[in-house]
Amino acid sequence: MAEGAVAALADETLDWRFKAAPPQSWGHTVRDWLATGPTLGDLGTPLLTLDAAALDHNLRTMADWCASAGVALAPHGKTTMAPALWQAQLAAGAHGITLANLPQVRVARAFGVRRILLANTLLDPAGLAWLAAELAADPAFAFVSWVDSTESVRLMDEALRAAGAERPVEVLVELGGPGGRTGARGVDAAVEIAAAVLRAPTLRLAGVGGYEGALAHDAEPDALAAVRGYLTSLGELHGRLARAYPDDAPPVVTAGGSAYFDLVVEETAGLPEALVVLRSGAYLAHDDGFYRGVSPFARGTGRAPLRSALHGWARVASRPEPQLALLDAGKRDLPFDEGLPEPQQVRGGAELTGTTARITALNDQHAFLRDAGDLAPVGAVLRLGVSHPCTAFDKWTAIPVLDSADAAEPKVTGLVRTFF
């Protein structure tokens, strides 16, 4: 990455555009404001924070696990859309950065990411023309995307020809599954797509890929069996294409979100001449919800569990009924698609984990906290555990980093800038 571009984020001036930035920071650069030694108490609510110690633990845990498993990691950058966090992942040994669409790729290129895996099919003619120009201008730029039909191959080839593409675009044939998301339905169909790629002069067959997470949503035996079955088919497709791959680089076999990457490693072990690339993205921030329950590190890999680096903070704004409190954080501030936030503690007061206190609903700007009794009076600030980092980061343009959310008065040690 372009280290200077990431470092320059510290020179950005804070103001009202960043809802996590308190008024006393306005007019100061990020660097100068951090130098004043702000603490959590200087920040308002609603708020989302990151925990520096948890981020570091998760970063090292995943990097070490991938190294010991002999697989590459191209973390999905769409989870955070935070170049500073991408830089940390690359510095820890990541193979590249995965992204989901062309606007995200443009952000990555603006910050100098050199190896990008687009886990999607790119058909936009204007976008393909831009990509062709990027590839021509930077011989070190390594890019690969997906195709899942002969029609997508035809459209890509036509657009790249029209753009006068100088370098072929590397593509992976995407294998899907019944009831899943995108991807060819069946190995035979995928082989036909690979044949179409080989006939297209503007494309280059680089391997196979897909997403097993679209076929399961928990760690029950049936779900794990469905994932294993899909990965077996992906390995079969790789074997069927073995003679079609170019000889100048090992073919890529990529799968693996943050829920089943252990199964990807097990089921791809022994594939001939393959570079197995995981695309896990949520592992870095982890959570106190969906991924806490389904992560391989919680299912017995022998590694220390990942730690949630994300916390919401909300203030009790109203107690209109004895067992109902309204907090000043809602859907615009906290994720809710994979489970509602969990009340963990009252700042400077009672522990809420393990009590009857629970959040039962979110409106746009309010959370409904029930059965907290007298533990959450009006004005109290609550720490909340959240579920699903992918829909947490996108609600904040700048996220304060705390040295430790468990400290009596956490210090603000950084400000992570996102670009959604």
Automatic annotation (TrEMBL):
The keyword Electron transport does not apply. It comes from the Bacteria. One of its GO terms (molecular function) is lyase activity. Keywords: Lyase. This is Amino acid deaminase. Transmembrane segments: none annotated. Residues 309-403 form the D-serine dehydratase-like domain. InterPro entries: Ala_racemase_N (IPR001608), D-amino_acid_metab_enzyme (IPR051466), D-ser_dehydrat-like_dom (IPR026956), D-ser_dehydrat-like_sf (IPR042208), PLP-binding_barrel (IPR029066). Belongs to the DSD1 family. The keyword Transit peptide does not apply. It comes from Streptomyces rubellomurinus (strain ATCC 31215). PANTHER family: D-SERINE DEAMINASE (PTHR28004:SF8), ZGC:162816-RELATED (PTHR28004).
